[in-house]
Amino acid sequence: MTLIAIASIVTAGLTTGFGCMGPALGEGRAVATALTSLAQQPDASATITRTLFVGLAMIESTAIYCFVVSMILIFANPFWNHVIAQVMGK
Amino acid sequence: MRLSPDQMILWQHGFLKLNGTILFTWGLMVVLAIGSKLITRNLSTELTRSRWQNLLEMVVTGMMKQIKEVGLRNPATYLGFVGTLFLFIAAASLCTVIPGYEPPTSSLSTTAALALCVFVAVPLFGIEDQGIGGYLKSYAEPTIIMLPFNIISELSRTLALAVRLFGNMMSGAMIIAILLTITPFIFPVFMTMLGLLTGMVQAYIFSILAAVYIAAAVAATGTHKPRPEPATNT
């Protein structure tokens, strides 16, 4: 039981930590490119901003998936419930 | 700690449960429906108009403009669907300033339902535009090899819509709950403000993505009417 708790918490931390790295780099690149193109073509700002927001949401959702997985591991762990049910059954 | 308002059970009788999600969803629906009914009861085309009518006109024309910019030619057809999604999600996240309220969109059931609405509506709009054969043929574009991948993308983007909205709203509520136990004085206020901003951005993104998917389904084949050429500078 303790083993499951340790594994869940450590994995949750690793999931969010590593899962945020990729999207962070990606979002940085996206925003930097968008700023460059905004500086070059201020007329197209509406289109660039809208596409940027939609793209950022797409990139960000991968980080959100990792976050949801770690939240499930901490607060709604399926293995945890299974073990508790087994202990109660004995 | 509660992960979602699903676990907040207010009333239970047998297998019938009234949880927080249902209560807040219906509350929002009632407020939105009665509010728009009251505002549209006496519309005027004169110069003097009520401030509520101004607000509603601003919202509706703004949404029409956004839908049009995505590439849908007559936005009024899609305004009912996309606009309702936007208004519901925006109201759900804006009402978090009310104490005791939890956004129904921070429950995976609500967001899954909204994503399923998009999942069903996209083929319906596509079939309405180019017929059932034309729409089904768009799955086998550009070659028949792409057929399974197109179907997978259809399913995965529904999942992505649901989990994205759920994750954002849930994380906002949870961060505030955690901060309240650590620094309960000023800092949660700033996080609430950030949560309001995130909520608006998510509402915008959800509805604009729905509009993008509809636009892709409507104009997937090359048979549609050609777009008007942009005015060239002389």
Observed structural traits:
A: 90 residues, mainly alpha, B: 234 residues, 68% helix, globular
Distance between the termini of chain B: 65 Å
Greatest contact between two chains = A-B, 15 and 20 residues
Outline of chain B, from the CA principal axes?
Answer: globular
Helix content of chain A: over 70%
Series of secondary-structure elements of chain B, N-terminal to C-terminal: EEHHHHHH
Counting copies of identical and different chains, the oligomeric state is heterodimer
What is the SS-derived class of chain A? mainly alpha
With helices defined by DSSP (H or I, 4 residues minimum), what is the helix count of chain A? 3
Counted up, domains of chain A total 1
Judging from the principal axes of the Cα atoms, what is the shape of chain A? rod-shaped
Helicity of chain B, in percent? Answer: 55-70%
Could you explain how this protein is built, in words?
- The complex is a heterodimer of chains A (90) and B (234).
- Chain A has 90 residues and is mostly helical.
- Chain A contains three helices and no strands.
- The model of chain A has no long low-confidence stretch (mean pLDDT 87).
- Chain B has 234 residues and is mainly α.
- In chain B, strand 1 and strand 2 form a beta hairpin.
- A two-stranded antiparallel ribbon of chain B has the order 1-2.
- The N and C termini of chain B lie far apart (65 Å).
- Chain B is globular and about 60 Å long.
